[in-house]
């Protein structure tokens, strides 16, 4: 593999990572299902499940509360922080009250 190809691949994967962060939607991690978390934050389902379970047992009040979860470090937290909602009265966007 040439250096040019390697750089193009790296640039492409960075662009994909950046674009998924751009299109994330706010989500209340204390109320959302793991599927809603995964879809809203563009994270893997397994990580979304860990977030959901953690926030069911510990009411998360700020982004730093998520650092206790395996798979979340300061870099990832900084990427998703703006789309995290913790107020239990605010469900965020993308939720339906339909029965």
UniProtKB/TrEMBL annotation:
Top-rank taxon, per record: Bacteria
Signal peptide extent: 1-24
Record keywords: Signal
InterPro entries, per the entry: RuvA_2-like
Protein name per Swiss-Prot or TrEMBL: Helix-hairpin-helix domain-containing protein
């Amino acid at each position: 593999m040439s250096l040019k190809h390697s750089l193009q691949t790296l640039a492409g994967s960075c662009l994909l990572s950046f674009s998924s962060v751009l299109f994330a939607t706010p989500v209340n991690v204390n109320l959302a299902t793991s599927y809603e978390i995964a879809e809203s934050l563009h994270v893997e389902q397994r990580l979304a499940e860990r977030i959901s379970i953690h926030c069911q047992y510990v009411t998360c009040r700020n982004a730093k509360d998520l650092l206790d979860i395996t798979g979340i470090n300061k870099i990832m937290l900084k990427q998703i922080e703006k789309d995290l909602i913790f107020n239990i009265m605010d469900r965020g966007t993308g939720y339906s009250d339909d029965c």
